[in-house]
């Protein structure tokens, strides 16, 4: 089980994440959206959405930089393992608490508001609940990390990440003696990667950066406010081929007479 979850499962999760996202974007692009419910109820969404998105983005970027940056780079710039461990605990802890509070507000809104609940799917509610569970477990790892302020545990997981992305067959041995809460956190994270292409999480890949260099804006003119150019003549309505006589209610309309051909 250790070999499967931490040697085979990462490649399965990353493959489904990449290929599944590409397939969904190509086959069903109109479902590639966040499905925002802001128009249905905005009051509780503002603070919950800000706290959740800011917190989870900081956590995600922190994991990405902390695990995939070569250890030699931190040694070169003079950042010790202990300092890196403390920064991960301090910044990650604050961001994690923000994400948990915001996510709890969003989940409460989705479950208790009748309008939001009626437009929510099982996947919408389920993926939010899974993210909250993952955040809580991540905060739980901070308690264990406080006993390893020398940064030894951080280096252990950095070596594991490098071994996975360099396709080493013994990568799982790097964390075989790690605490079970770290392993649960990693396994659940990879499971979320598998669900990623099939949920609303795909919208995080569509950052509208092209708006920074697009040439211009679409010009929309209104017929009501636009001035009519001088000399423009409105065309007359087409006249009927035969005169139509007024017919009183209850009487039959007279048929138009035709002249026989000569």
Would you write up a description of this structure?
- It is a single chain.
- This protein has 262 residues and is an all-alpha fold.
- The chain has a domain of 166 residues: Up-down Bundle (Fumarate Reductase Cytochrome B subunit).
- 57% of the residues lie in helices and 0% in strands.
- The protein contains eight helices and no strands.
- Helix 2 packs antiparallel against helix 4 and helix 6 packs antiparallel against helix 8.
- The longest helix is centred in the middle third of the chain and has 32 residues.
- The protein starts with a helix and ends in a 67-residue tail after the last helix.
- The mean pLDDT is 82.
Summarize the structure.
With 262 residues, the chain is mainly α. It has helices at 2-27, 45-68, 71-77, 81-112, 114-119, 122-145, 152-165, 180-195. Helix 1 packs parallel to helix 8 (180-195) and helix 2 runs antiparallel to helix 4 (81-112).
Q: What are the defining features of this structure?
A:
Fumarate Reductase Cytochrome B subunit; 8 helices; 57% helix; single chain; 0% strand; 262 residues
CATH fold title of the domain at 41-206: Fumarate Reductase Cytochrome B subunit
Query: Judging from the principal axes of the Cα atoms, what is the shape?
Result: elongated
Strand content: under 5%
- Spell out the helices and strands N to C: HHHHHHHH
Number of helices: 8
Radius of gyration from CA coordinates: 31 Å
């Amino acid at each position: 089980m250790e070999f499967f979850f931490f040697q085979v499962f990462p490649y399965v999760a990353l493959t489904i994440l990449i290929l599944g996202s590409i397939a969904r974007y190509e086959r069903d692009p109109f479902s590639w959206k966040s499905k925002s419910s802001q128009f249905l109820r905005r009051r509780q969404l503002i603070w919950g959405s800000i706290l959740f998105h800011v917190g989870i983005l900081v956590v995600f970027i922190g994991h990405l930089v902390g695990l995939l940056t070569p250890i030699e780079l931190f040694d070169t710039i003079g950042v010790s393992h202990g300092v890196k461990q403390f920064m991960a605990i301090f910044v990650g802890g604050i961001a994690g608490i923000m994400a948990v509070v915001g996510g709890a507000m969003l989940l409460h809104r989705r479950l208790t508001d009748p309008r939001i609940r009626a437009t929510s799917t099982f996947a919408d509610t389920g993926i939010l609940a899974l993210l909250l569970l993952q955040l809580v477990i991540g905060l739980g790892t901070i308690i264990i990390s406080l006993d390893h302020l020398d940064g030894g545990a951080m280096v252990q997981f950095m070596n594991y990440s490098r071994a996975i992305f360099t396709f080493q067959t013994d990568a799982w041995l790097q964390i075989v003696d790690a605490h079970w809460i770290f392993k649960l956190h990693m396994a659940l994270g990879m499971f979320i990667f598998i669900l990623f292409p099939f949920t609303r999480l795909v919208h995080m890949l569509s950052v509208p950066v092209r708006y920074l260099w697009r040439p211009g804006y679409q010009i929309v003119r209104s017929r009501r406010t636009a001035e009519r150019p001088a000399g423009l003549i409105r065309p007359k309505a087409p006249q009927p081929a035969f005169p139509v006589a007024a017919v009183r209610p209850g009487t039959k309309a007279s048929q138009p007479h035709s002249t026989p051909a000569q």
